[in-house]
Amino acid sequence: MNLSVSIIVPCYNASHYMHEVLLSIKNQTYKNIQCILINDGSTDNTLEIINTFSDERFEMYDQQNKGLSDTRNFGLEKAKGDFIFFCDSDDLLPPKSIETLVSAYTGKEDIIVGKTATYSWYKKENISSLPHPSEKQVIANNHFEVLIKNMTEGLSPIAQNKLYRKVFIQENHLKFLSGIYHEDELWFFETMFRAKNVMFIPEITYLYTVDNAQSITKKKSDKNLLGYLSIIKTIYNKYYLTYPQKNISAYYIAYLKKIVIGNFKHDSNYSDEAVLEMERTFREANPEFNDEINLKNIEKTYFKYLNTISLKDSNTIKREYFNRPVNSLRKHFKIIMFRIFNSNSK
């Protein structure tokens, strides 16, 4: 099968990285690719580097700054391949990345996920890797097994380094939510909510740069918090209320609340308005929990506990749950379970 792959690369002020990134795509051993490069209003010479790069498989577009979500959505509109692959403009692809991912395809998978190495651009070496199964796994995602796996074991919820079947994207009308930070978290939920078959392969097929100081993940601000809150509200309104029988949404909302509270613990720079919005969102996105889900009883109890904590005001959360030596929600939960167990055994 000579399947084609559309590689979508949003580019914003990436002149320091751009040439090497483009070379890593050009030098892929798998040749049947369409590379869609979109300059998203860069103020450095990113566009100049893109325009001087010659390869007939590369398509160049220039637009006013619209942000990552809208830029990726534009790329989806231009994609002609059988598969979609997202690459950021400061990350690299090992030479056999696309070949390895495509060769794993059996004709059934909606999504194929490669292993992502964290990479030091300045040292030119791999540091570690993002959470990923250690061995090949083929998951018939009939009961939201991938989302459950992320909640209980941890996965990499980035949009990059995943081969998406384009027909799957089109049939489900999937797009990135415009104008928010952490859009990948919602994209991960929506794709894994709908995917029927997902494959994880153990080979490293993506180098994720972690020493780019300009990355939004390095800069905590109100936009980071509000991005997560938008995701919670979207899942609550679009999935929990629409598909009440598919109660993965309730538990996933609690999982995302845990992430937000954890970030809130470490960051005191959020504005009062943003914190009030957090409290309001937590109260409004207050799902009921059905036990008919493939989680252990202790895990079900934990996520319900997290949701209960989220309904308290922010000062109470900070005062009662992040004081040393018991400085985490998980530790508080273990103490509560220990006390309940001891009282029941008397």
TrEMBL record:
The keyword Repeat does not apply. It is an enzyme of class 2 (transferase). The keyword Ubl conjugation does not apply. Keywords: Glycosyltransferase, Transferase. One of its GO terms (molecular function) is glycosyltransferase activity. Residues 6-137 form the Glycosyltransferase 2-like domain. Its EC number is 2.4.-.-. Pfam families: Glycos_transf_2. This is Glycosyltransferase. It comes from Chryseobacterium salviniae.
